[in-house]
Each structure stands twice: as structure tokens, then as C-alpha cells.
Amino acid sequence: MDYGKISLKRHKELKGKIEVAAKAKIKSLEDLAVFYTPGVAEVSRQIAKDRAKSWDYTNRSNSVAVISDGSAVLGLGNIGAEAAQPVMAGKALLMKEFAGIDAYPIVLATQDTEEIIKTVKYLAPNFGAINLEDISAPRCFEIEERLQDLGIPVMHDDQHGTAVVVLAGLINATKLVGKKLENCKIVIVGAGAAGTAIALMLAHYTKDKADICAVDRQGIVCSIEDKLKRKICKATNCKTISGGLDRAIIGADIFIGVSAPNILKQPHIKKMAKDPIVFAMANPIPEIMPDDAESAGAKIVATGRSDFKNQVNNVLAFPGIFRGALDAKVTKITTEMLVAAAEALARSVKNPMVDKILPSPLERLVVKNISRAVKAQAQKEKVIRI
């Protein structure tokens, strides 16, 4: 089935896929007076006296801005703002469909770090949370970090949403093969936004016990002096070896790919430890096709595609994370909230199997499970608005 052709047809027919719907209905002059003038003036007066009342009188408490500069969109790269808009609208659609959140796609006609930070700050009073999306590394790290003082949660989904789903999948996968995640050697290929966040998440979750090795186009990432890679180097402990994937993969229990098509070969898998786990998540073509990985000895294989078993897709994470963050009225999303989300996602599969380590995005309980876990952790950490 040609999904691209069908998608073009449906988007053109619908003129996009989201719209604004009114909560209030204007059926009389009285309705007009209440929801517009003169009645709305009193609402504005109350918020002017106390800006915190914007949470009570507007839809801010259930709204998320999905913001991108179009610099790192899916597997398409730097395609610009206009071309990124359909993807951001898709995220907004998923927020509404799965979590009941009113999300708004906003694409920016700049890729300047300072301009993006200023723009998000100017927009913040309209929203309850900010979902940064498809912004290239390393700029995405600085942008997210410098927006943590807004008083509302700001999360770069390409980093943390992906890391949450990977961790959840590995929690179940390692149990199935009789291994402990903290005792595993993990090779991550791709040292961009997703690869860095996955490495940091796994290092945190295993209390730095896992043997994590990151590889990029230049080979094993091991130079602390490399400013662009310094963040991922903090999570890795293979700084004494050099080479590329051929060297890193020897004895690995887990391969995680967030890189490029067809770079993992069958001989690589044969060099891995017993019952290897392969997460080949490059889209649309993974680092290795599942059949090839399995025939080479991989015990559990996951990809980013919905037409293969074990889909690792951040749609499993971000609707529930933002639902829980909004419900809990959090001021920021912490690492422990993300861990709680991953554990809740893993638990959402009652009986994990080799071909089902993660639930389907269409299983509606997933959002409820994650949102409850995030809310409980937020209350525990007390990072909520008073």
C-alpha cells in the first residue's frame, strides 16, 4: 500500500487534519454578550489583577504548543518551516485523539537559537506546556535547557519521548532474555538528539552501571574535548577504545540505532553476546531489516515502523507525559517523571513476548497509565504550581 500517495490525497481533501472547535455556542445576543463584549471584559480584568487566573478562565490548562524550526524533520532533514507544518499538525492530532489535549502546531521562520528562545518565551503565556519538535542537535539541547525557567513544562520530544519508549522496551526485552539492563553492554549508533537522550536515560536508570558505547559517523564517541559530543560522553564509558561499529559491537547485548539505513549487517549481530536485542529505529528504512536481524541470531528486534512488530515510536510516550504534566500542574518535566513514564509504559504490556515488548499506540490505557505515573511522581517531587 502506498501510504504516501494516500496521505497526499487525504491531506488535500481535508486541507490539513486539524481544526479549531468552539466550546461555547453563540445562539443568541445574550451568548454574544457573555462570551464576547461586554462580558469578557470582566474576565480580562480578573486576569489583569492576578495573572495566575489565566489557568482558570482560559484553555491554557489543557493546551500545548508544538514548536519546530523544521531543521531535523523525521528522516527528511532540514526541510524548513512550511514543510514541517504537516508533521507538527500530526503531533497535535495525536495529542487530541489520544490524550484530549488541545495542541497547536507552530513552525518558526528562523533557525537561530536566540530567536527561537525569545519567540517561545513570548508565546508561553498562551499555553500550559511546550513541546519542542524536530530541532537539530546540538542547538536543541541549549534551547530546551534555557527554557526550563518558564514556569511551564518544556520538553523536546525527539530526545525524551524517544528515550522513554526505548527504556520501556528494554525493560521488557531484557527480562525476556534473562538479563539485567544494568549488566548489559549497549551500543548506540547515532549521537544526535535521540541518541544522546537515550544514552543519558539509560545511564541514569542503571545508575551508570550499564556499559554504554556511542558511535557516530566518525566512530566511537570518546573525546570529552569534543564540545558537540560532551553531553553524550557523560553517559558513556567506552572512552578507552577506538574504531567504529565493527569494534564497538563485539560482545554487545543491545544495539540501539537512531542513525541511518542498512548500517548494521548480519556479521555485526553474530559478534554480539548471546540472545542479542536489536532496536533498529532509523526511518523509513531501519539499520537492518527485522528478518535479516533474526536470521543472524537476534532474539528480539524492534523498529520505528508500524508495519513491523515491536514498533518503538514516541507516540507511545508524549501524549501521556503531557497529559500527566498538565493534570499535575507541573512547572517542569524531570528525569524521574520520564523514568516513571517508561516504567508505566513497560507495565502496560501485561505479558511481554518476543514479538510484543511494547503496547500498540491504539491501546487507550497507555495514556492513562503514563499520565497517572507522571502525576504521582510530580506530586512526590513537588514541582507543581501552588
List the helices and strands and how they pair.
Layout: H1 3-14, H2 29-35, H3 40-49, H4 54-57, E1 63-68, H5 81-99, E2 102-107, H6 113-123, E3 129-132, H7 139-146, E4 154-156, H8 157-176, E5 185-189, H9 193-205, E6 211-216, E7 219-220, H10 230-233, H11 245-248, E8 254-257, H12 266-270, E9 277-280, H13 290-295, E10 300-303, H14 318-328, H15 335-347, H16 365-381
Parallel strand pairs: 1-2, 1-3, 3-4, 5-6, 5-8, 8-9, 9-10
Antiparallel strand pairs: 6-7
Folded structure, characterized:
By secondary structure, the protein is of the alpha/beta class. The chain folds into two domains: 15-157, Rossmann fold; 158-386, Rossmann fold. It contains 16 helices and ten strands. The chain has helices at residues 3-14, 29-35, 40-49, 54-57, 81-99, 113-123, 139-146, 157-176, 193-205, 230-233, 245-248, 266-270, 290-295, 318-328, 335-347, 365-381, and strands at residues 63-68, 102-107, 129-132, 154-156, 185-189, 211-216, 219-220, 254-257, 277-280, 300-303. Strands 7-6-5-8-9-10 form a six-stranded mixed beta sheet. β3 (129-132), α7 (139-146) and β4 (154-156) form a beta-alpha-beta unit. α5 (81-99) crosses α14 and α8 crosses α9 (193-205). The longest helix has 20 residues, at 157-176. The chain is elongated. The N and C termini lie far apart (51 Å).
